[in-house]
Prior knowledge:
By secondary structure, the protein is α+β, with helices and mostly antiparallel strands. Helix content is 51%, strand content 14%. Strand 2 and strand 3 form a beta hairpin. The chain is elongated, with a radius of gyration of 32 Å. The termini are far apart.
Amino acid sequence: MLKLQNSVFLVPLLCFCFVLIGDASVHEYNGVKFVSKGNAFVVHGGSEGIYSSTSDTNSVTDIGGDSYIRFEKITFHRPKEIANFSSRSIQAIVFEVEDRETVGGSAYGGQRAVCCTADLAKLGVCSEGEVILRPSKENPSWPIVFGISFDGDNEVATLPSKSIQITKTGMYNLYFIHCDLNLKDLTVKGKTIWKNPTGYLPGRMAPLMNFYGFMSLAFVILGLFWFSQYARFWREVIPLQNCITLVITLGMLEMALWYFDYAEFNESGIRPIGITFWAVTFGTIKRTIARIIILIVSMGYGVVRPTLGGLTSKVIMLGATFFLASEVLELVENVGAVSDLSGKARLFLVLPVAILDTFFILWIFTSLSATLNKLQARRIMVKLDIYRKFTNTLAVAVIVSVGWICYEFYFKSNDVYNEHWQNAWIIPACWQVLSLSLLCVICVLWAPSQNSTRYAYSEEANEDFHKDDTTLTLVKPSPTHSEEFRSAPEARPTQASNGASHGDMEEEKKE
């Protein structure tokens, strides 16, 4: 008895396309060439999460709440030298990811095939030269299949215009497939339009538009708090607070641009390259400046040391390298044709950013340890307290980041076909929330106030130490001759402190 096995020919192709879904609801094909997959020739036409059409007919009419995949001016072209015969059918196949096993099969557990072979045709299982298909168990009318063939010496075959209504929420895939060996150099031109009930934004990205709207509001609230404090105590502002102001401003611009990017994408179906480019660029600048600020603060710049000495060029070089690596990665993922990237190509772009981030983390915590030791030795308790809180905040952020990276890896490794596409937006959203949370904590710790200058670098490195001595003297006064007697020993700690201070300066010069 003939038994058709579940096809796995689509596994590599679906892995290739689902890990990075195409980022445009208008999918254009400009002379895309068919590639060999098994015994078939295939072009991947698109993969998107689509929500089902609005059930209320009036809603569909009034607000356009229908979901569909529409084929417009799809044409197939063959070279003139082989345009001398009538070809087999070239088929367009649309299926939901849960029905992927209905495409292709094999007899008696043998080698799996996409196209029906002569042996299978003799058994009456399928028609030779056609794609092996079985109806879906849930909906026998799916997958949707229709096609066209070349007649005589025609060089162009035009696929009939067609609109497929989506009545079930799912991840939908489109493939153009043919089984004719004589059409090896076949190409396809035209476009397909994919629409959700609320617009053209792909289902996986749809929640991100509202998310960036809320993030824009959150940055506005943070900005109002920070700028009001900045305006009140502008005379007391230190350079570090100016840097934080810049990061907040860049964050507000980034979130607003991302929102308008998705809003325009949802309205037109084509991603606006200009807005996307600037959203990516502002975001990359913000992340780079934020990392540099955290690093130099960890080194004690402006707090326990007036300059970075010889480390300035190294910090700038690390920041510039991180900016370039991040900018390239983000531009390729958001502006370029994401679905054209293979897993290895994306890994090639992600690895440099991950390595640079790791280097930042190691350098930051190493510098923090040295700064805390200096503050502890000098007994500058006000600065020591804020640095301890800063260190604890960074430690929590790193722990949460590592945990989320592990979850992201688990999520993607267990969702090869993007069946959980409706929850995929949470992955990038969490990183934005974590970044904003860290920025909020830093804003609270270093908010402008009438005492802001107490966190700045001072020539009197042991100011708190001397204040403590004065307080003790006032609490328990001594006779004049005793005070003079003790004046000589008290000079020794001061000299020691000055010696330590000169030692620190020499250390900075060496660095």
